Every structure is written in structure tokens, then in C-alpha cells.
Amino acid sequence: MRIVVWSAFIRSRRMELKQRLSQQLKESRDAFLRNPYPTYQKRLENLNKLESLIKAHQAEIIYAIEQDFGTRSISETGLLELFTSIETIRDAKKQLKKWMKPSHRHTSVWFFPAKNRVVPQPLGVVGVIVPWNYPLMLTIGPLVAALAAGNRVMLKMSQNSPHLAQLLVELFEAQFNRDEVAIYADEAEMGPEFSKLKFDHLLFTGSTKTGRAVMQSAANNLVPVTLELGGKSPVILDEKFDVKIALERLLGGKLYNCGQTCIAPDYLFVPQSRLNEVVETTKAIMAKRFRTIQHQDYTSIIDANAFERLTHLLSDAKEKGAKLINCIPNSEPERGSRKLPFYLVTEVESDMAVMQEEIFGPILPIITYQHIDEVFHYIAQRPRPLALYLFSEDKWIQKKFTQETLSGGLCINDVMLHVAQHDLPFGGVGESGMGHYHGREGFNTFSKLKPVMTQSRFALTPLFYSPYSGFAKSILNVMINRKIGNYESAIQQKLTSLLRIIGRDVS
Prior knowledge:
Blueprint: H1 2-34, H2 40-56, H3 58-69, H4 74-100, E1 103-105, E2 115-122, E3 125-129, H5 137-148, E4 152-156, H6 162-175, E5 181-184, H7 190-195, E6 201-205, H8 208-219, E7 225-228, E8 233-237, H9 243-254, E9 265-271, H10 275-289, H11 304-319, E10 323-326, E11 343-346, E12 363-369, H12 372-380, E13 388-391, H13 395-404, E14 410-412, E15 433-434, H14 439-445, E16 447-454, H15 470-481, H16 487-501
Parallel strand pairs: 3-4, 3-6, 4-5, 6-7, 8-9, 8-13, 9-12, 11-12, 13-14
Antiparallel strand pairs: 1-2, 2-16, 7-15, 10-11
Active site: 228, 262
GO molecular function, one term: aldehyde dehydrogenase (NAD+) activity
Family: Belongs to the aldehyde dehydrogenase family.
């Protein structure tokens, strides 16, 4: 009896949630249809409100994220959440006029003097599913792109970000109409129902497994999706690059958010001859940075399930013959605070869980190699990663990795910083995702790039209306069999002169 009652309650709750989300989508779409092309001034106003909202509530945002994590470095939240979000807004404001401006395109000589252009047009209502690991930055980034493109937006926060979600709901409702921006804190069945909505575009950031489910739900309504997923992003250290510089940079990026970053370095290729040097240098660097995991800048693992998953990766590797090196030796894993020391894992094999799944934590397996071709072969045989990191000054090696490996992004002689470049697109390939955002690519993702052709009063196309004259057939023969090439510009100039002589408007 209890099971029947509970099932009925769940069905009722799901139906209520579905109706609530559908009603908001309708209100947002109706608002969009009343103003389908917001002016530059309106879009700029929205971006300014967004920037003011973040700046005015920095302390509350930092505290909310701290509550959700247990321990989250305040400085890292400032750097990786607040600063990056505000910089994204500033860049969008600076570039907005340029992004909105129609671009003129070439017109083939056969259709001259018609004019071609591409007009970026808002799509309508954009859905955004936000993960927990960078909950502010990964809310603001897609939101900025969608608002700059002139859309209405609905966002769903993660169940692991309840404090920040509740804060953002309150802040946004005070600054924006809900038909402009509607934010939802996660609740039971919210995710599946949200991804079933008939958005004009849906952006999801999260795991590959959940990304597949989101894409399947969206496909039922032919909703286009951008999937920002993850994967195992490799780091390659070559024979000659300075080990200390490489590891300072690698560890700096790896330890952001305690490794809970979709583009975090996942495993490291090291020349066999340099393995001991790498291990000892890592120990020395970590000894200077963290003497204990209780340091305020050493972030907690997000929840108990994630903590248990990471400790299982370590125990599985050890049972199968790997060597675990605790690089914060005065500390052991602490379930209460969900803090895990940074581990190197050597002597790894491909059947170990640590080499089978994205780590998303403070663990770095090391694979040794004799020749760089071994690295290419290994990477090529595995799912395409979201990022790839190469430490090498060798131009030939740099070129080879650029051209012969396929990843969402490539960063040479550092890690993760390519994502901080406003003018570079961000996105995965294959199992690490599809589509791009950031900068102009983000604006374009949430726009319909509408091709517009404007025919002039005088046109050559009537020559090719049926029935076809002998002259038309002769021209067609020239079109098919002769190369216009460099003569195209000259032909256009002569046609323009001819049309002016006979008094035709060529505009």
C-alpha cells in the first residue's frame, strides 16, 4: 500500500513539475515573440545588470559556494568564479556591436549584382543545465552568450549546489523578469523534465553518461544541443622540457578545485628516463604548497559518493599492482571533511579503474614511454579528450600534436589556460562533447546565422527560366565548362559599367 501511495505521489509531483516548467517556457517564448530582435541597448542593459548583480553580492556568492562544497578555497572562488564571470561579461559588452553586425558575403558572378549577407538572429528560448563544480562560472558563461545573442534563458542548477542555487534564484528575480531569465534550484525529477522541454537550444555541462541521456531527451523534440562533457585529458612531457616548470604549471591547474574540473590534467606521459625526477620534483613542490590537507585553500571533494569513488580508484590500482605515492605525507584521506591528499600513481595498467574513467579529483597516474610515437598511438586508440596538454619546445613535436591528435582543445607549455582566452572557442569532440561557446562562437551558437540575399532590380537570372533559349544554353555551357577564376572580378566590373550605362540600379 505504501509503495502504491508513494508511486502516486511521485507521478503527481512529476506532472506538477512538468506543468510548471512548460508554463514558464510558454511565457518566455511569448515574451520573445513580442520582441524577437532585442536592440543593442537592451542586450547591453541585460549584461550590465548581470555584472552589477555579481559585483554587489560577492560575499554572499562566495559563502554559498563554500557551504555547498564544505571547504572551498575563497581565493579560488574569487579567481575561478567571480573574476572569470565578470571578465566574460566585460568581453561580451566590448564585442557585442561587432558580433551583432551583419557580415557581407561574396556573390557569385552569375548572380551579380545581387547582395549577400549573414544576419545573426536570436533563436528564442535557451535552456542551460549547470553542473556543480564551477556553479557560478558555468551559469554566467552560457547566460552571457545567450543574452548577448538576444535570447530568453531558463537555467537549472545542480542538486549539489543548493545554497548557491537558492541565492541566485533570489538575486535574479530581483533583477530580471522571469520571462527574461528563469533559474531553478534542482529538485526531484527536475533534470529529466527540464531536458524534455522544447527549447530552441539546450546547453548541458556534465558527465558523458548524463550527456547521452540529455541528448536523447532533446532529440525527441529536435532540440539542438551543445554538450560540454569531459574525459581523460592527457599531459605529455617531452625529453628536454624543464621538469620543474612543467610540474609547477601542471600541479597548479590540477589542484584547482582539487582536480574537480572537466579540463583538469587526468594522466601524465613521462619519458622512462625522467620518471624518478618527476616523482621527486612533484613531492618537493607539494611539500612547499601544502603540509596538510586541512589548509583552507585545499578544497573538499563535493560529496560522500564522489569521495568513495576516488578512494576506490586508489584501492583498485593498488590491488592490481600500481604504486601509490601520497604527496602530502602528513595527511590521509578524511571521510568526515571529504578531503583527499594528492596522489601520484605509477606502474599503472590499462585495466585499472583509474585509467578507465575520468578521475575528477587529486590523483595523477603516470605512464612512461620510450619514444614519442608510443604516446600518439595510445591517445589515438582512446576516446577523444576535452583537452590535451603538451610540454615541449620542439617545433616539430608541437606541430605533430597540433595536426595529428584530436581533442577539444590543445594547450602547449601550460594547462587549462586556453579556456580562459575569450577569443577562443571552448568545446569537446566525440565523447568529450559537441558544439562550442565562449566569445563569438558562443554568440553564434545561440544565434541563427540567417543567410539573406537581396536581388537587384536588374538580374541575369531570367535568362535561365524555362523554356531555355539557345543563348541560355550557350551561357550554361560556359558556366559548366569554362573556368572563371581570376576573371570573375573583371566580369563583375564590366557588368556594373554596362548596367550604369543603361540606367539600371545595381544596389
